[in-house]
Amino acid sequence: MTELTLVIGNKNYSSWSLRAWLVMKQAGLKFTEVRIPLDGPTTHAEIRRYSPSGKVPVLIDGDLKVWESLAICEYVADRYADDLWPADIAVRAIARSICAEMHAGFQNLRENMPMDCRNRYPGEGMTPGVQAEIDRIFAIWRQCRQKFGTGGDMLFGKFTVVDAMFAPVVMRFVTYEVKLNAELKAYAEAILALPAIQEWLAAAYTETESIPQIKM
Ligand SMILES: N[C@@H](CCC(=O)N[C@@H](CS)C(=O)NCC(=O)O)C(=O)O
Asked: What share of the chain in percent tops pLDDT 90?
């Protein structure tokens, strides 16, 4: 295996970075982490040194660069870990649909409840548009847990890329203290209990940069 490098933003703020990082951790991969604090005077130039899109995360595997968090998750699953998607083809298609929906949508939630792991803003950011997106997330979580969740405490039982896509949403629900019923809370707590998430949070708490109203 060539040496893997994952370029990410601040752990406190970079929701896209968290997705790729979590999948790599859950796959048990060893990798070098390059952390570029966002929103600084040199951020753009630094990210450009690594990333063709000028965004993080980007995974560097030898001569190959993979950017876009979902593409990184797909690559890790294809190349290094064949258990990051549900085994059944139809169930996998549903998992992929959910990931694509998450990757492309939920703009209201992103804009009004940006990820900020260290802080608490109870009740802030709630708008009718955000509520509608949260309701959709609740429906996805409920359906996945009820239909596919037996055999584990993740959405499809065992950990899949879908859980990585929702990990930053769990962080947002903690920060903005979004109320969850018992079933949804159990899922959120299972995500928070993952050792990799604990590691991410511990690092987020040690970061010193503070970026007001960053929307990721
Ligand atoms: N769709 C991209 C989004 C990546 C993204 O927006 N990354 C933010 C950080 S979370 C970034 O690189 N911002 C730096 C900038 O725009 O200068 C993905 O899934 O990776």
From this structure: 94
d(CA 26, ligand 1 centre) in Å:
22
- Six token digits for residue 60: 């560097």
Domain presence at residue 189: yes
Tens of pLDDT, residue by residue over 100-155, are 999 999 999 999 999 999 999 999 999 999 999 999 999 999 999 999 999 999 99
**21 pocket-lining for ligand 1 (C-beta < 6 Å):** no
Distance CA 100, CA 50 (A): 25
Domain that holds residue 179: 89-198
Q: What is the CATH number of the domain that holds 166?
A: 1.20.1050.10
Q: Examine residue 212 and state whether it is found in any structural domain, yes or no.
A: no
Q: Which atom of ligand 1 is nearest to the CA of 13?
A: 10
pTM above 0.90, yes or no: yes
Q: Is 69 in the pocket of ligand 1 (CB under 6 A)?
A: yes
Q: How far apart are the C-alpha atoms of 108 and 26, rounded to whole Å? A: 29
Same-domain status, 96 and 132: yes
Provide the token pair at 199: 């590691």
CB of residue 56 inside a 6 A radius of ligand 1: yes
Residues 139 and 160 in one domain: yes
